[in-house]
């Protein structure tokens, strides 16, 4: 199972301007992690749609598949930490002078992560079960059944973790 560090927003000082673009064939739920680490639904994006967000460098974001609640990548990471325009450009063009107050919108692509064959198979099987206890009806090796139960519980936990909706 995928285990990620706990994350939450910190102070709101360094502005970051991001364009989140859904590059998957799935409906994507864009989530901001607030100051308490609560999941705040920001926007639902269809395939190839985008949303422009004015946020801060210390405000983490995640993306979830709307249907399965699987975590998706934002710029090849499960937790996206925005950069200021200047930081982004300094990394991309290290030999160029960037004006102090330069601001530009940074593209952040939402994509599918690459999972192991075992994990991907468990995800496919998981979608046939509502509760982890239902796995006991299968004749599976104990370690495989435990893995399947864990990802079912994880999905159900994420489905209940989103606490508020942006208006």
Automatic annotation (TrEMBL):
Pfam families, A to Z: VHL (PF01847)
Annotated von Hippel-Lindau disease tumour suppressor beta domain residues: 9-86
InterPro entries named among the record's database cross-references: VHL_alpha_dom_sf, VHL_beta_dom, VHL_beta_dom_sf, VHL_sf, VHL_tumour_suppress_b/a_dom
Record-stated family: Belongs to the VHL family.
Protein name: von Hippel-Lindau disease tumour suppressor beta domain-containing protein
Organism, as annotated: Exocentrus adspersus
